[in-house]
Amino acid sequence: MESESKQVMKQRKKQVEVLDILKEALTIFFKNTNFSIFTLLTSLPLLLLMVHFETLFQQTLVDTVRFLNHVFLSLNRRFDGGFRYHYPYQYGSRVSLDQDYTVFSSKDYLPNLIQLVFMYLVPLHVLEIGSAILTVYVSSKLKSEEERMSLKGMFQESFDASTMKGTFITSLYLLALSSGFLLAVPWIVNNTFTIGFYSYIVSALICFAALTKLLIVYLEWSAIWNMSIVISVMDGIYGVGALRVSWFLKSGDQKRGLYLMLVFFALGVCFRLPCIFLGCYEGGYGIFVQVGLFFVVNTLKWVSCMIYFCDCKERKLEKKIVDVELGKDLQSGS
């Protein structure tokens, strides 16, 4: 009996891995036209805000990088005997340190930064959670039911005030935790410059090691946080309770959640970096293409989190059944 139970668990683990989760998410999204239309229509306010947010975010990011280059090269110049030099080319033109600092110290920088933080904490967060709730709820119905839902049925069944309110409470906990992690990034960079500013190699190694570790922890916790949102939508458990259940379901399965979140993190970076280097934030249609790709990736992420939650829940139930059966066998054997 014991060997049969272990064999059942091994077979179950082989059935649903990260690639299987992604394949099922792609199937739900692309083979259900009504679902694709539903997620697009319910995400329109989020998409419109994302266009402005991404434009502002990329411009602020570029200005911040220029300022950090100025500070780092200024510190290095002092240790090189006061030698004054320029870094040769910046975005296609020759830019001096003084010019670069002027770009950063522009009167628009601080207001843009404040606006960016406010948008991230309030309207963007509310719209993203609202879109996530509707996506998770309808995709879970499509996963569990063999019949295809109509577009009208999706709108009629998806809106639940109590679920919206409870899940939003859960999201506030997640917003506080994720914001704490984001604040750790500039803190690490600042300490890296303080410890190893006299050496490019030392600074780079320390910063790379610290940020890599922070990224791994962030992605592992992101899997727990995102699953807690799914738990709030599907099981009606909110706040700290949802986080506890998510932690319990994910215990012993950290790598799969890490790899799943790494896929969507890498896709987000791959879509954003070309847009930054091409200067899409300066105008044109590039930013709309990026936001459209973000919409698809974000929808697939929440569908994948729903599938991941269902699989983790089934695994825990199977393990509990196996443990109970083993316990009965031991008692009967004694």
From TrEMBL:
Bilayer-crossing regions: 35-57, 117-139, 168-190, 197-218, 224-245, 257-279, 285-310
Keyword rRNA processing found: no
Keyword Transmembrane part of the UniProt annotation: yes
UniProt keyword list: Membrane, Transmembrane, Transmembrane helix
PANTHER family per record: T23E23.1, TRANSMEMBRANE PROTEIN
Protein name: Transmembrane protein
